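Can't paste images in this forum, so I'm doing it all in text. The chain is below; anyone willing to post the predicted structure tokens underneath?
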Amino acid sequence: MRPTFLLIDGHSLAFRSFYAFSKGGNGGLRTKTGIPTSVCFGFLKSLLEVLGNEQPEAVAVAFDLGVPTFRHQADDTYKADRPQTPEDFLIDMENLHELLAALGLRIITKAGYEADDVLGTMAQQAASAGYRVKIVSGDRDLFQLVDADKQISVLYLGKEAFSVRGVGGVTEYGVEEVQGKLGVLPHQIVDYKALCGDKSDNIPGIEGIGEKTAVQLLSTYGSLQNIYDHIGEIKGATHKKLINGKDNAEKSQFLAKIILDVPLDVKLDEFVLRGFAMEALTPVLTKLEFKSFLNKIQQLQQRFTGVNDENSLDNHVAVSPVEDREEQLENQQLSLFPVASADDGLDFWTPAETSAAMKGDDIGDNDLIKVRIIDDQVKLAELIEILRTQTNPEKPVAWDTETSALEPRDAELVGIGCCWGISPDEVAYIPLGHTQGTNLAKNLVLDSLRPILEDETYPKTFQNAKFDRLVLRVQGINLAGVIFDPMLASYVINPDDKHNLNDITSRYLEGINLQNYEDLVSKGKTIGEVSIQQVANYCGLQVYATYQLFAKMQAVLNEYPQLQQLFQQVELPLETVLAEMEFTGVRVDSEYLEKFSRQLEQDLQTIENNAYNAAGETFNLGSPKQLSQLFFEKLGLDVKKSRKTKTGYSTDAAVLEKLQGDHPVIDAIIEHRTLAKLKSTYVDTLPKLIRPDTQRVHTNFNQTATSTGRLSSSNPNLQNIPIRTAFSRQIRQAFLPEPGWLMVAADYSQIELRILAHLSQDPTLITAYQQNQDIHTVTARLVFEKTEITPDERRFAKTINFGVIYGMGAQKFSRETGIKVAEAKKFIAKFNERYADVFSYLEKMKKTALANGFVETILGRRRYFKFQTAQSLLGKNHDEIDLSKLRLNNDDAGLLRAAANAPIQGSSADIIKIAMVQLQQILQGYQARLLLQVHDELVFEIPPQEWEELQGKIKSTMENAVSLSVPLLVEVKAGENWMEAK
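Text version of the structure:
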């Protein structure tokens, strides 16, 4: 059974706890000294019960932040009618924050997104990593995340969830339970809300369409899009309501959909539960008078750690002679959640917001710096004179922009901060867009700073320079002279560290404690509404830290020349390239996608009918229970290829893969799922992401998100545009160049295998690539020991050639090729024998990771590994390690496979990054633009008159980015759209 990852909807649980005891006001539970404890009591009691019942491997608690999200920016009425938060709740939330910290539980938030988006993203990541995910919440919005294939469910806290005397009312919602409760499947919930709305969140829906009608429509047509595709079939008043309410439906659909690819700077292993911080709990539980929780916490501590801690809570907590507050409740039959339901729409604050509200105007005060507030032209002129003298590359000026939004094109420039020394008064803040106080005219300031900001002879350092570069670009400033970025330096030093400024500062600088943004900006406000003095202190401390980080982090980089070179020659110049790509964006043909969506809807219906014909009956393709009954009871398929679940036998993707070929209905269901996901993820979503002002989609390229060095992208994730099937390739047809231009794709051929040849120095691989032989045919001849190779044999060889890079075992090779496991084992053994140097190299990398704790790419990029069951090998000579004698758990075995692959995948990332930097320099003399980087491929838009000249330059630059033992090969093709260029 998979380990469980427990995701807790912090706000839902907190506000339900509060209103259970306060009856909607400021009453409720209190200590003898008057401290309100309703939130902490209810939260802790339900948390401990769930931990005891579920015994999770990992736990994360998600909260909203008090800043506008993309939904608020899209619709200012979103959640606008919620009442004011009671004062007791704010105080209680501050104590809850302290309590969770003492328990050692990680809180996760993300500015610009709601907790639901964070929970959705974490659920996807945890499921992909092999966890069974359970989301604890009283919010039905999260039902849309339920997924049988991925083993994601919701532990729903109903009105009777936790009484003071015990447990009850917690229901686990899988697909069937969701359908039984709402009448629709999880993936239909967004469309359900688009139709009937959600009053608690001010999601309008369609006027006159209620829950019953919404269920009937979705039961008949499956999706909102399909309803409108068949609008002619719908008669009477419902037809008219749908026509009149289409705009509201689309807006509601956007507001209701939970985002699943929030860029989170976290690693899953950070949330592994290793027991409670017992000593830290002592003062918190004493203050809250929570004695009766001691036994439960001690039992859970023993369960998670297996030890009875001598420093147990019983030895530390001071108990009052008067019985504590929760003991007074033992004879009361209060339900923890009798008053408020998940849909009551009551507002609530995070601990950070509570802290900010309690501190008031003191926020931002510090004793380290005395920020110069530049609020008149005389002060501005004095600052400019100072900045003109700052040309020493050993002391770059630190800069920061403060904005009203996270999207540079939508952001108002509120202020600019800078620091040019370590003296407390060598820090300045220029207010530009505050609602109160004296601001300088933005044009005056930008025109004054332009000669410095655009001149590369004035050295500069920015934390996350790409963001500030784009903000200034929108304002007409072309930033130059950035010679340092702490975020990128942190990533190069250790990609698994956190790279935000607060964490970097805590690692490198003593005595500087940066404020959190959410402590500065209250819920529902922007930074422009905060006082100039507070923002000046906040921004000033950030640039003060950024200035000092330059020397500290450069010293670390200088100890490792390869990392210094990687930072200076690859990552730092790449930031400029990525900013330009983000600013440019890419054209998307929305009309084509709308037609494609209708075609897919028809294809899905055809496939559905084929599935019915193959099965001999109709059934719900989205119901795991019905599929289980069909497969293993009616059709008699091999139940050993599945696993038992609460509702029968699993029919997830892994099971379908094993059953493929056993019955025609399996192929139909796999195809249906593939197309349905393709349609919802890309075809129906991309048109909504086109910016009206540019008519392009602008993705965010994430430079510090992966451990391997590869780039990722988000909002939207264009890097995952699929290409494996004919249908998925058609999506690329929607990506267009500038009108009249060509779309050009330049793709490395088998770059990872070529890197493997270079790293392993295997003579067979090297010879094959040097002589331009077909490597898959070469491999097939070696393992089949014959000259004439059939297409199937070459396919087998291709599977293992690419599979060996990622540590593919016999089980997966068997599934990929359809041969028996025993035969697959022989095939892999023969491969290892024929490519002995490849096998030796991969084994050596595993030993190196165990002995050194890291492996390196060709350019010296490091990836670090922390093993749980092999820590004793750290520091040993790798030649002394015998891998066959190791007894590793599944996590460590996975890390070893990653260690063997990391130098290959990381070197591939380094090579394409070098090519991007070099190509961007070449393109300065042309109109052509680099648009996308997708794994081993670069996508450009090029005017026809530049194509012939640039084709050769692109190919040559990419093929000569680095020098290997074997040649790199790049194919460069052009077309009217991305698909034609492939």
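Residues 4-329 form a domain with the Rossmann fold fold (CATH 3.40.50.1010). Residues 161-168, 306-365 have pLDDT under 50 and may be disordered.
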